[in-house]
């Protein structure tokens, strides 16, 4: 049919087809279905308007015929809105990455022995996509003094992790927040700073560790003395009893 419209008597000719569909960030779906003939544009179906566009005069008659056929139009639309979108979501190589994982945000803190200042750490883990906006806020404003942050790094499952720290005067703890924004979150997070663990708990832990080490050391000394004593004892001659002292 196309050979007749282009006044071609024979030979080899190429019909090409491109199916394109996508999902926007706001969830809107769009795409097109395009035909080419011998390397030239022929017919173009716009999913947004559900209309055909003819690239030349020869394609006009087919365009009019397909627009009259309601079943053809419905078949193209259903394929674009259903089958193409399913392929897009199942195979990331051919479509957009629709996966969104929110970060799991945890807070930790400690008191510095030298000056009594507090160091607070805000850790974000398991988020996707990679882009994340995390800042320290003081009274609602971005705060950069005495802060440190790492680079976003990948996890084994394809998600990412990131952490940042800040050193503050404990008297001003209530003024600070860890502020996190990410595509996987419905709304930004503002995490309060935690009170560091008490020093009594710290000394209890240290005391327990020291106690275990001392016990191990005493046991080791006793074993060494026993081994040495065994080596110093005289050998028993046959028929003789060992000499003992009162």
Automatic annotation (TrEMBL):
<feature type="domain" description="Ig-like">
    <location>
        <begin position="102"/>
        <end position="194"/>
    </location>
</feature>
<dbReference type="GO" id="GO:0005615">
    <property type="term" value="C:extracellular space"/>
</dbReference>
<dbReference type="InterPro" id="IPR007110">
    <property type="entry name" value="Ig-like_dom"/>
</dbReference>
<dbReference type="InterPro" id="IPR003597">
    <property type="entry name" value="Ig_C1-set"/>
</dbReference>
<dbReference type="GO" id="GO:0002474">
    <property type="term" value="P:antigen processing and presentation of peptide antigen via MHC class I"/>
</dbReference>
<dbReference type="InterPro" id="IPR013783">
    <property type="entry name" value="Ig-like_fold"/>
</dbReference>
<keyword id="KW-0472">Membrane</keyword>
<dbReference type="InterPro" id="IPR003006">
    <property type="entry name" value="Ig/MHC_CS"/>
</dbReference>
<keyword id="KW-0732">Signal</keyword>
<keyword id="KW-0490">MHC I</keyword>
<keyword id="KW-0325">Glycoprotein</keyword>
<dbReference type="InterPro" id="IPR050208">
    <property type="entry name" value="MHC_class-I_related"/>
</dbReference>
<dbReference type="Pfam" id="PF07654">
    <property type="entry name" value="C1-set"/>
</dbReference>
<dbReference type="Pfam" id="PF00129">
    <property type="entry name" value="MHC_I"/>
</dbReference>
<dbReference type="InterPro" id="IPR037055">
    <property type="entry name" value="MHC_I-like_Ag-recog_sf"/>
</dbReference>
<keyword id="KW-0812">Transmembrane</keyword>
<dbReference type="InterPro" id="IPR011162">
    <property type="entry name" value="MHC_I/II-like_Ag-recog"/>
</dbReference>
<keyword id="KW-1133">Transmembrane helix</keyword>
<keyword id="KW-0391">Immunity</keyword>
<keyword id="KW-1015">Disulfide bond</keyword>
<dbReference type="InterPro" id="IPR001039">
    <property type="entry name" value="MHC_I_a_a1/a2"/>
</dbReference>
<feature type="transmembrane region" description="Helical">
    <location>
        <begin position="202"/>
        <end position="225"/>
    </location>
</feature>
<dbReference type="GO" id="GO:0006955">
    <property type="term" value="P:immune response"/>
</dbReference>
<dbReference type="InterPro" id="IPR036179">
    <property type="entry name" value="Ig-like_dom_sf"/>
</dbReference>
<dbReference type="GO" id="GO:0009897">
    <property type="term" value="C:external side of plasma membrane"/>
</dbReference>
<dbReference type="GO" id="GO:0042612">
    <property type="term" value="C:MHC class I protein complex"/>
</dbReference>
<comment type="similarity">
    <text>Belongs to the MHC class I family.</text>
</comment>
<dbReference type="InterPro" id="IPR011161">
    <property type="entry name" value="MHC_I-like_Ag-recog"/>
</dbReference>
<protein>
    <submittedName>
        <fullName>Major histocompatibility complex class I-related gene protein-like</fullName>
    </submittedName>
</protein>
């Amino acid at each position: 049919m196309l050979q007749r419209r282009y006044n071609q008597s024979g030979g080899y000719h190429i019909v090409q087809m491109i199916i394109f569909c996508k999902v926007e960030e706001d969830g809107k779906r769009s795409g097109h279905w395009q035909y080419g003939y011998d390397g030239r544009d022929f017919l173009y179906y716009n999913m947004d308007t559900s209309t055909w566009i003819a690239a030349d005069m020869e394609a006009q008659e087919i365009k009019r015929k397909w627009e009259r056929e309601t079943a053809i139009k419905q078949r193209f639309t259903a394929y674009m809105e259903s089958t193409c979108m399913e392929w897009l979501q199942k195979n990331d190589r051919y479509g957009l990455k629709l996966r969104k994982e929110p970060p799991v945000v945890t807070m930790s803190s400690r008191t510095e022995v030298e000056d009594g200042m507090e160091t607070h750490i805000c850790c974000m883990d398991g988020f996707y996509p990679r882009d994340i906006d995390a800042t320290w806020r003081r009274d609602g404003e971005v705060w950069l003094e005495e802060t440190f942050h790492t680079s976003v790094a990948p996890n084994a499952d394809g998600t990412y992790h990131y952490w940042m720290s800040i050193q503050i005067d404990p008297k001003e703890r209530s003024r600070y927040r860890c502020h996190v924004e990410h595509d996987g979150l419905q709304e930004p997070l503002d995490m309060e700073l935690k009170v560091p663990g008490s020093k009594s708990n710290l000394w209890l832990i240290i005391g327990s560790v020291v106690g275990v080490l001392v016990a191990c050391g005493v046991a080791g000394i006793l074993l060494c003395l026993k081994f040495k004593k065994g080596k110093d004892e005289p050998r028993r001659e046959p028929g003789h009893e060992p000499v003992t002292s009162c």
